[in-house]
Amino acid sequence: MKKKGFNHMKKWILGIGLLLLVLAGCSNSKASEKELENLPNLSGETALILVHGTGGSTGTFDGFSDTFIDDYKLSNERIKLEIGTDGKLTYQGVFTKNAKHPIVQIGFEDSIDATIEEQTDWLRIAMQDLEKRYHFATFDGVGHSNGGLVLSTYSQKYAKTTPTLERLVAIGAPYNDLDAEDNDGDLAFDNVPVTTPLLKTYKDKRAKIDSDLLVLSIASDIDDGSFSDDIVPVLSALGSRLIFKDTAKVYLESYYKGAEYDHRTMYANPNIQKKVAWFLYTYKDDKKEVELAHS
After folding, report:
1. Residue 262 Cα distances to 51, 72, 86, 213, angstroms
2. Helix residue ranges, H only, 24-97
3. Is 2 part of a structural domain of the chain?
4. By the 8 A CB rule, do 192 and 182 touch?
5. Residue 16 is assigned to a structural domain of this protein
6. Mean pLDDT, 10 residues at a time, the chain of 295 residues
7. Which residues contact 216 (CB under 8 A, 6 or more apart)?
8. Residue 231 lies in a domain
9. In this structure, what CATH number is given to the domain that contains residue 46?
10. Which of 29, 111, 127, 137 gives 20 to 30 Å between its CA and that of 192?
11. 218, 256 contact by CB (below 8 A)
């Protein structure tokens, strides 16, 4: 009798353990139909997708999300989603039916050697799965450094897919690579000295961009004479104007100057976070608008 009772207790404990794993949201892309049925329909919400740069992870935007949730009260829930090089998705957390402006912190397993094209295709896998799980119809994207390039590539390659990318924020994205001589000039530029293959690719595909897209491009100068954020030249970060200015519905630029706007941490800067929040949740897209950075 004792052995039978022990086995019963063991099964009960195992069952509880499995339930806790499900509740913790630790799952891969092969969710069962029953699991999908238990997830809320968030088709009325626009997800906020955060994409890190080179060497980043699902935790890169932790502080950013904390600010949006705890300080700004613009969102109330977030999950993390890592995409493997084989397309496998690993979730941390689940959204509830009460999620408002739900945040998804994306992480690429290969965040160093993978190409922008590869990471863009991996992001597409993630977006398809998020649509399947939560029925998102639209999303906004914020990308730091190469994360901004990933979202920009997405805006061209997957413009006609759902969920639809509505607002794109690129923070210190190197649209024309990193060479200072290739990006010599001032804020009034209408071209760059040397158009790199990367920028040429974006320019060649401008016609693919959704004409309803809203774009905010953020660049910074640490004011040390380099006219860069210590890694990305200002004209490279604002090379976005050669891509989106005449194609997107709205194209806005923001330029920040000072040692506190270093490339590595600019997405964590309070002034930049406030600007991003304003663009995502306050700015009205009721007309076509272009606003270029100026000194």
Report:
1. 18, 23, 33, 28
2. 33-37, 62-66
3. no
4. yes
5. no
6. 46 44 50 84 99 99 99 99 98 98 99 98 99 98 99 98 99 99 98 99 98 99 98 99 98 99 98 99 96 90
7. 167, 168, 169, 170, 252, 253, 254, 275, 276, 279
8. yes
9. 3.40.50.1820
10. 111
11. yes
